[in-house]
Structure formats: structure tokens, C-alpha cells
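User: I'm designing a mutation panel for Glycolate oxidase and want to avoid disrupting the core. Could you give me a predicted structure to guide residue selection? Please restate the sequence first so the numbering is unambiguous.

Assistant: Good idea. Sequence first, for numbering, then the predicted C-alpha cells:
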Amino acid sequence: MPLHSEKRLNKLKAQLIEIAGNENVDDTTSGRLVYSYDATPNFQALPEIVVAPRTAEEVAAILKLCGETSTPVYTRGSGTNLCADTCPLKGGIVLLMKHLNKILELDRENLTITVQPGTITKEISDLVEKDDLFYPPDPSSMKISTIGGNLAENSGGLRGLKYGVTKDYVMALQVALPNGELIRTGGKLTKDVAGYDLTHLFVGSEGTLGVITEATLKLIPKPESQKTILALYQDIEAAGRSVSAIIAHKMIPVTLEFLDQDTIKAVEDFAHIGLPTNVKAILLIVQDGPKEIVDRDIHKIAEICRGEQAVDVRLASSAEEAEELATARRSALSALARLKPTTILEDATVPRSEIAAMVRAIAEVAQKYQVRISTFGHAGDGNLHPTCLTDARDEDEMNRVEEAFAEIFEKAIELGGTLTGEHGVGVTKAPYLEWKLGKAGMEVMRGIKQAIDPNGIMNPGKVFADKAKQRMVTVK
């Protein structure tokens, strides 16, 4: 349903053309259709106009115009998010960041890189590694996802256990506010406590507060060596216990990934790299750093896994094999998506010590609701990805899927965890957010939103649900 009459829409289009140029404004059906959905299943809505600004100043001018005309704004990168955050559910405009895709500065002296939001994540990693530097955040979609999307969702990745997530590497931002002003936050500083931490307020805000138009990211020295092992299990809970045991022995691997048998079979069928499909679970474990420390840690980790009933522990024989294993893990969602018409991936997260309990709970929920759920994820930081293979055309099954995930979210919170570790709230988890934050926490967030975006034009319909899901949740 259009928000504007044809006359007002034509006027808005003319004003947008004046700001961004005729070639960067598209109101054709085909042009709008491309940006009517993202990677989230079962969400689609046409925007009224798609506009691709060329500068931060143009972004600010567009936001000012949209505020004056009460036009919703949905900022868009590559659309790889999994919570419907870039789906324009209330029409308005899609603000496409494809022109703001430049790497502006690599500062070797201060170990920072300054980029525009449309820059592809892997381009940043590849560039800095040529200088023996390292940008650790590595979401599975890094070959196509933009850094602006990573910032909006506070994306994680396979290296999050040791190195943290996107927010841990953000030093400064330029942000266009809904009133049309441009502000700068932070700087190339190790210490800065002047006022509220606005930088990290915008990181993870899912496009609901403003538009990030530039980011300065922290870099670290590239680790000198790395080793990868696979630990194989016939008992899923033993794999979960191994995760807790490794951390309890005061070792923090770079990567500590879990794949259940269903996921292993799908990935092997997709990647053909020789994964053993006859085991119930695999842990993919990577350590990096000085060679002598890596050798020591990998040996000890292998011992711990064997002590927790691993039936075999295999060391990758070369850097190429290690990269193949990591690439195969990154392909898990794509591999599973080939099996059924609809794939719904979530990211319930618990404390590391509760991994075994959470894995067991997911299996019990799947059996209870008679749905197929494959589980993989970043087990080392407690971030599991229960993935339901289903068919959106089966209404009865989809109802059971929703109930199953609600129970999984409830269990995660009960175990001291959260609804989402890296995918964001968006639309899909908005009804459940109050379970985690409580009414008072939601009111604080609404107050921040109202102060910065009083007209509610920034990504409306996301994060804040009209009504919370009603369910009793006992939080430890």
C-alpha cells in the first residue's frame, strides 16, 4: 500500500533526483522488486522508490527530506541479513549504499582502516593482510556482505571466540541522523571517555537510529602461524562438554565450531572435501599465534577432546586443507538450504558452559514438534544456529516451526543466554525481545529511539514489536 498519493510520490521522486541524480533514483516495478526482500525467508514488500546516494552529504539530505515527508527509510547493503532487517515492510524508500564502497585510508601508524559502508567485508580483510595486518571479524557471508551491514547487525563470525565481534573493532563513525545532520563519533584513540559512547550505540542498532556513512576500524598484527584440527564424536553431548572443557583449561582457540550429523552430511554433499558423515558431531578447532604456543595448545586440545570421548582427532595436513575446512563450515547454510524449499536459521546463544544443555534442548524440541532441525554454529562462544528445514507452503508445519523456535528462545534465556548472538532482532525476533530485556529495558530503548528518530522513519517495523509474545520465562 503506497504511503503517498501519486502526486506526492512524484514530488518526492523529483526531490530525490535533485539530491542524488536521475540515474540513482528508480521507481520502476522491476527496480523496486530487487530490493523488496533479503535473505530472510517469507518476508517481502515493495518499496516506493530505490535511491542510491553518492556521498554522505546526499545521505543526510535524503534523510532530512524523508523526515519532512514522513517517508520510511530502509538502508540496504547486500541484503544478506537473516532477520528481515532490510525488508521495506512499510514501503517508503530503500537507501542503497552501492556507491559508498570505497576504502578511504589504511593508516599503518595507528593500525586503522577507514571505509565507507558499501565496502565488501572480505575486501577489507584481503587488503590489510597484504601488509601483515589483520581484521578479525569474519561473518560467513564475508565474500558478499558489506561492512555497513556488519556494523548495523554487529556481526560475528568463526573467529569470534578469540577475537570478538564487529563492535570490538569499531573506533570511529560518521553517521547521518534522521534530522539531516552528520555527526562524527570516536576517533583513532585507545582511550576516549568524553561523554556517552555514541559509537557503540549505533553499532548493532539495525538501522533504526541513523545511517552509518563512514567507519574507522581497528587492525591488529597478523598471527604468525595457525593449525586446524577436527574432533569426531558419536555423542553430541560429549562434543558440547569438550567445548566447555577446552575453555575451562584456559585455552581460547580462534575457532571452535560445532556441526551435527545432518549438517555434516549436507556440507560434504555440497563441498566434497572428505568430511566423515558417519559421526554424530564434529568440532572444527583452529588456533593461531606464535608457533610454539599453537603447537602446545593444539596438542592439549586434542588430548581434552579424546578425554571427552572423541572417537578421532585429525590435524589438517596443510594450510590449503585448513582453508577448505573453514570454507566448508562457512557453506553450512547454503548446503542445508538445498534440502528443503524453506530454510529458517536462528542463533540462540548461551554461556559456553551450557552448550551441551542447549544442544540437548534443541534436539528435544525438534522431536516434540516433529520438525527437522539441523544444528551448527560457533560453539566456543555459545552461539548455536538451529536451522529448520521446512516448506512455507505447509501452514501446519510452519505453525509448529514457530512454536519450536519460541521454545528454543525460551530455553536459551532460561540458561542465561539470549535470543540472538549475531543475526540481530529485526522482525523475526522482535516479539520475543521483551523476554530478554523486560518491560523497563524496552522502555529505555524506546526512549533512545524517540530522542534520535522522533518521526520514526528509520527502519520502522524492526526491533520494536507491536505486541510481545506472551510466555512465562524463568531466567537464571
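For picking mutation sites, this is relevant: The chain has 15 helices and 18 strands. Confidence is low (pLDDT under 50) at residues 472-476.
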